[in-house]
Design brief:
Length: 476
Amino acid sequence: MSAIDLRPDACLIDGEWRAGERWLDVHNPADNRLIARVPALGARETQEAIAAAARALPGWAALPASARADALMRYHDLILAHRDELACILTAEQGKPLAEARGEIGYAASFISWFAAEAMRAYGEIIPATQADRRIMVIKQPVGVVAAITPWNFPAAMITRKLAPALAAGCTIVIKPAEQTPLTAFALGALALAAGIPAGVVNIVTGDPVAIGGVLTASPTVRKLSFTGSTRTGALLYAQCAPTVKKLSLELGGNAPFIVFDDADMAAAVEGAIIAKFRNGGQTCVCANRFYVQDGIHDRFVEAFAAAAAALTIGPGDAPDTKIGPLVDDAAVAKVTALIADAKAKGAVPVGPQRSPTGRFVPPMILSGAAAGMRMLEEEIFGPVAPVVRFTDEAEVIGLANAAPDGLAAYIFTRDLGRSWRMAEALEVGMVGVNTGAISTEVAPFGGIKMSGLGREGSRHGLDDYLELKTMTVAL
C-alpha cells in the first residue's frame, strides 16, 4: 500500500486539498457503479486557483532549469513507482483494459522525463547586429500562468503532455480535468506534491465546465490555454480567448484515413488496423476512422480484418482477458449505434460474426460497402466500428482522404517507397503513420492542421509553446 494518498477525492489549490459544498458523481463506465464523489467547484474557486498559480510563478520561474528538471524527474519516478495503483484508478473511472491503462501511465511518465531534459535546452541566441556598437540577444522566458483543459479518454497522458512542458519552461498551471475522469488527475496532483513541486505550481479544479472554462479564458492572468477535446468546444474556447489574446494549443477532433494499397504487407496492415482502430475501444483522437482499401486487396483485407476484430475480447477493463472495454457513457453508445444504423440504411454491410451491444459494451464491427453520404465517414465515430471504402488509385484516395475538414492523423500501408513519400506529403494532416498503426510518442510533435487544431505537443517543439521570445538590444 502506498504511503501517498492517491485518492484524496478533492481539488488541489495552492498545495491544499479543497472540498466543496456541491459534488459530482464519478461512475465506473463498465457497470455505472458510483465510485467517487468529487467537488463541484465554480468561478470563485477557479479564480483562487489562478491567483495561487500567479503567486507561485515568480519563484518557480526563477529556479535554475536544472532544479526544475530534478523536481520533474522525482515526479517521473514516483509515477512509475505507483504505476499499478494509478492504472487501477484510471481503469475504474475510464474503462479501458488494465494493460492499456498501465501503458498509458508509462506514456504519461515519458512526457515528464522528456521535458525534464528539455528544460535545460531552452537556448537563446546571439544575432549579428547591424551596427558596430550594438549587440542583439534573444532569450526565452516562460509564458506565465497556463490553463489546461483535458479529456476523459487519456486522463493521465493528456495531463502530463501539457503539465510537463509547462513546468519545464517555468510556468505554473491550473488543470481542469474531464468530469468523467477526475480521480486520475487528483492522483497525479498528489504525486506532484510528494515530488516536492511547490504549492501553487500545480492546481486542479473540477466542477461546472462552463463556469470554470469561462474564468480560465477570461482571466488576463492566464497567458496560455491548452485544450484537448472536440472541435466544437475548441472553437468556442478559441473565441473566448480572443479578448485576452492568449497563446493557444488546441488538439481537436480527427477523422483519420487508413489507406491500404494492393502492394501492402497484409499481416502488417491488419495488425496496424487493429491497433489504430480498436485501441481504447476506438475512443482516441488519432483513431483510424475511415478505411480505404485498393481494389486488388480489398476483399482479402476485409475478411482478415473482420476475423482479427472478432477475436478481440470485450469486457470490463479489470477483467484479465479484456481487449476492448466499455464506451465511456450512454451518450457515446447512442452516438455509435446511430452511426451504425445510418450506414446500414445506406448500404453498408457488416462483415464477419455479429455480436449485439450490451449496455456500454459495443462489439467491434467491420462495415463493407461504405460510401459517401454515410455519417460515419464524415463524423468522428469514437467507437469500435470500421467502415471500409474501396478505391482504385492514388489520385482518387487522396481526394477522398483530403475532403474532410479535419487534419490530425493518417495511416498508409504500402511497400512502394516512392508511393509512401507521395502519399505522406499529399495528405493534409499533421501526422502520418507509414506501415504502422502506432504513431504517438513523447519525442515527436503531436498535433493537426485544418479543423484539428493549433500548435504541437511533445518533442522539442512542445516546449516552445510555453515560452516567449524576448529580444535584447544593447548599445555598447
